[in-house]
Amino acid sequence: MSRTGPTRSKRPGRRVTELVRRSTRLVWSCSPRLFVAMVGLQILAAAALGLQVLVVAQVLERILDLPDAGVTTALVWSVVALAVLMALGSVVGVAQGSVRRLLGELVARSMNERVQDVATTVPLRNFESPEFFETLQRVRQSAATRPFQVTQGLFTVIGTLVSSIGVGAALVALYPWLLPLLAVGAVPVLLTSRRESALEFRFTVAQTTNQRERMYVNFVQTNRDEAKEIRAFQVSTWLRDRYRTLYDTYLEALRKHLLRRLRLSTLGQVLSGVVLAGTLLVLVVLIANGEVGIADAGAAIVGIRVLQGQFQGLVGGVQQVHESGLYLDDLQSFLRHHARQEATAPDRRDSAPPFAGARIQDVSFRYPGATTDALTDVSIAVGPGEVVAVVGENGSGKTTAAKVLAGLYDPDTGHAMWGDRPYGTLVDADLRSRIAVIFQDFVRYAFSASENIALDDAGADARRDELGRDDVRAAARAAGVDGALARLPHGYATRLSRMFDDSADLSGGQWQRLAIARAFYRDADLVILDEPSAALDPRAEHDLFSSLRRTLHGRSALFVSHRFATVRGADRIYVMSSGRVVESGTHEQLMAHRGLYAELFDLQAGAYFPDGWSSSTP
Ligand SMILES: Nc1ncnc2c1ncn2[C@@H]1O[C@H](COP(=O)(O)OP(=O)(O)OP(=O)(O)O)[C@@H](O)[C@H]1O
Predict the structure, then answer these.
(1) Tens of pLDDT along 85-143?
(2) Looking at the chain, which residues constitute the CATH 3.40.50.300 domain(s)?
(3) Domain 358-608 belongs to what architecture?
(4) One-character DSSP codes across 33-91
(5) Is ligand 1 within 6 A of the CB of residue 398?
(6) 192, 354, 568, 580: which has the fewest Cβ within 10 Å?
């Protein structure tokens, strides 16, 4: 993942034009109707503002005529027109606010969805990289707010430009030389604000790690799962201090950053103020010389004030587009980078052929940033209808091997094969639908019990809330959790989380059975279960494994386990140690071999027979 982020080589003018073009396209694609409404409202607001300047000139002129002419109908109409124009401006302003907000949300949704698409489809390996997390965190935040700000900035630019043209035209009609002077006044602010935007982006990038750490500590302090340990270990003060220290570091950097920004913007504002003062002085001199009438001068001053406000708005809008544009670049380079990764994969893949066994062959794999391989020359095969077990001590590589066999990690060397086809030549989604996998740290979704089982069943949305659909129930029954789910307040439709009203929670073992049901529910050729019985009571464990082959209906399974009693019945057992397969065979063969398997088996079995255990009695 590149850290380079936004492109900065382009000339300022071209860059803003390009950003405006890009964000216009983005906003347009979200809602052409609202876009048109927004532009229409801007034009209306601009016209109202421009007309106001001209009407002010008329009103002043007629007020100055009052001693001679008295209150004329023309004066009354001018005042009414001014009031109508002002009211119109306010109403249009309110409408603009609503349309802007709606458009902003639509843009945010569209960008968020694109980030979600990337986050949920990039190769799993990315999630082992802190750099990826860092960028993901930054772009997640940018996606939620920055496109909205580009949209706002864009409309501010359009609005102020159009209004400036309106008011400018009115002023030009009065005094042609005023406009260029006022435009020159905006230049210093424009330049300093550009530099401020770059500073802001650099600051955000520099603070991403600190922010991630703060978010993590905050998450630990407020999350339900962590709540019990925080109390049991009395770590709340330690966590709060840690949070405060991180925040202090951030605040210190923020102070320096804000000071730098303040210095820059003061410089820009002072220079612009000098130009404005010069313009007003010229006007005063002209009035003194009698070259400008009082009414016109009054209108000109109102015009200058309005136009100056518009120029400030314009500068602010350009700054917003530019600043948010830096984040948009960052966001789009992230999206492009990961789209490219996918594009390098073969674009003409075949659907997975009928299952004829799956295997990993001479596979080596190293986690990003790790100094040693997690797997070295590992070969594990699961034939059609076979039940295969993988055992080994902690950290020996069992889960990693299961992930490579599941197609979630690409091996560094060696192959993962579906029959005689490497995984890389098959359609990813097809392969995934043919392999069901449940990990030891399976996810407890805060959705209904049915949804927790039929997660991937996108077509069944309408039926999901029905209590205990047959196929969902069958999977739950096979995993031994049907009774517990049926007894929930709303049966299978009960939401499984205490975070929401009208929900319920399951015990650790019930959750594990539900996760197993999730694997059974999928009509997959190969079922991979990583530590499926870690939280099961002895009866549930016995029931699960004694009925496993029946439940599988001839499908193949690979399961990882530390419990040797559960692996005895497997067709083949692989024993892993330090990332290698050191033994394989049936239980009987491995016991006869008297290697690591027999040693671990004896250790475990011996715990049940403290007075003496011999593996000659298994
Ligand atoms: N995300 C990761 N990043 C870096 N190294 C990892 C990662 N996950 C696991 N490892 C390392 O890879 C090796 C194999 O881990 P793995 O989880 O496959 O072991 P395991 O046999 O399943 O262990 P356990 O029985 O404890 O579940 C270990 O040395 C572990 O430290």
Answers:
(1) 888 888 888 898 888 888 888 888 888 888 888 888 888 888 888 888 888 888 888 87
(2) 358-608
(3) 3-Layer(aba) Sandwich (3.40)
(4) HHHHHHHHHHHHHHHHHHHHHHHHHHHHHHHHTHHHH-S-HHHHHHHHHHHHHHHHHHH
(5) yes
(6) 354
